[in-house]
Each structure stands twice: as C-alpha cells, then as structure tokens.
Amino acid sequence: MDDKHLERERYDERARQARRSLPGAAGPQDGTESVPCVLRAPYEHYENLLRQVLGPYARVLELGSGTGEFTGVLARSGAQVTASDISADSLDLLRIKHPDWNHVSTEVCDMENLPFEDASFDVVASAGSLSYGDNQRVLHQVHRLLKPGGCFVCVDSLNHNPVYRLNRYIHYLRGARSRSTLLRMPTCDLILQYQKILGGTSTVRYFGSLSWLFGSLSTWGPEAWWAKRSDECDRLFHVRKSAFKFVLMVRKGG
Fold it and tell me: pLDDT per residue over 43-93, tens digit each?
C-alpha cells in the first residue's frame, strides 16, 4: 500500500472512530480553540488573515479539510466554501457535525489533481495539509485555481528545526505518519516558490521556535503565561528556520 492510500485509510478510520463517539451534532470545539494554548498563535494569525480576505461573495477552496477542524472560520464568513479532502469518511463527519453549514459543499479529491476549472476560486486555504501532496503539484494546482488577485492562505509546520524533525520521525517510527509526509514537509524554499510563482504581494510570519520547551514547562504554571513567553521569544529573535509553524498569505498576480 502506498503512502497516499495509507493516509486515506488512517484518516478514514479516525473519522469513523470519532463518529462513533460523537455525543451530538455539535461535536468537540474546533478551530484555534482546539489547539493547545502554547501553539495557538499561528492559528489565530491564520484565522485573522482569512477574515480579512473573506466575504459572502467569495468562492473558497479548502485543501485537506479533514473533519472540518479549521473550516469554521471559512463557513462563518458566509463565503461559498468547498471543503476538499482525500478521506470520504472525514468529510462525512464534517457534514454530520455541522448540518447548518448549507453554503459549504464537500468534494472527495486528491489535492494533486483537483477537479475544478481554472481561475475558479477567490481564496485557497490550507491548515496543515501541504505535506500530504507533492509540493510542486499542489503549488501548480493552487496557481491554476486562483483567480488573478486571489489569495492563498496557509498555516503549516516548517521542516528546519531539528527538535521538530526528530519528533516527526518518532511519529513515523510509531506508524502515526507516513514517510512521504516527512519528505514533503514545507521549507523556507517552498515558501519562496509560492511567493515567486503566484507573483503577487505576500506576507509570512514564523512561530514557535521554543514551543517544544514552553509546552513542557506549562506544567509548572498557567499555560497561557508560557504561551505568551513563547510568542515574545519569536518576536524578539525574529525566528525563521528555527520555527515550528509558519503562516503565509500570498496574492496571485495579474
């Protein structure tokens, strides 16, 4: 079984398990509130950027939607949202959890080969899904699908800090991650490629150079206090390659 089928089976099974334990339609808290406090800053920034570019007339594609953990900020904008994922069971659970999202459609598809017309979306969004597809193919799809002036907004992990690389490798050894996701983890070079190929204005911020440390220290005091210290370190030292997460927004040039 190749990695793509392995990941599909893994996320299908996770969704089936979550569906069996679901107490009601609302389900658990999603979005930034579902993330540990010390790791929230990049997701808060991601959602804030999306709020700036979304509106009720926007057409939005979300890559790797899963069960809708970060689809809420898109849905609440009133935009016409297409939530896409390779896992059919995950998208089924998204619809069960959020039956009131009548302006959100779902599409089971591979992010390397998306079944949509050229220049058909105002916004393409991704929360942690870039390593689940070939980097160049996904970049080509984002460029193809965005309208001129449209925005690509993503939050994802960065692959330079050795502490985080080791942690992902341990997850791979434990069978919780496929080898291809290790190889495809975003880098600073990939960020530059998105900026160059899309060709418009862009902004990128880096977060969490010391999240691994402050996360463990949170047992010795309020988690929110340690989260604030982690964010202050990021700003003070202008982190880049040492970061855990990055948030990128880039417009497609005309």
Answer: 999 999 999 999 888 999 999 999 999 999 999 999 999 999 999 999 999
- Cβ atoms within 10 Å, residue 8: 21
Which amino acid is located at 239 in the chain? Answer: V
Q: Domain segments of the chain: what residues?
A: 3-34+45-157+187-206+244-252
The secondary structure element, H or E, covering residue 183 is helix 179-183
Q: Give how far Cα 139 sits from Cα of 45, 92, 129, 148, 232, Å.
A: 22, 27, 12, 15, 32
**CATH level 3 topology of 3-34+45-157+187-206+244-252:** Rossmann fold (3.40.50)
User: Are 34 and 56 in contact, with CB atoms under 8 Å apart?
Assistant: no
What's the N-to-C CA distance of the chain in angstroms?
A: 42
Mark residue 4 as left, alpha or beta (left: phi above 0; alpha: psi -120 to 50; beta: remaining).
alpha
Separation between Cα atoms, residue 230 and residue 39, nearest integer Å: 9
Give CA–CA dist 155/152, Å, rounded: 10
Query: What confidence score (pLDDT) does residue 35 get?
Result: 77
What is the C-alpha to C-alpha distance for residues 57 and 80, in angstroms, rounded to an integer? 7
SS3 246: strand
Provide mean pLDDT across the span 186-202.
Answer: 97
What pLDDT band is residue 253 in, cutting at 50, 70 and 90? very high
Model confidence, pTM: 0.90
Tell how strand 80-85 and strand 59-63 pair up.
parallel
Which residues are bridge partners to 123 per DSSP?
60, 151
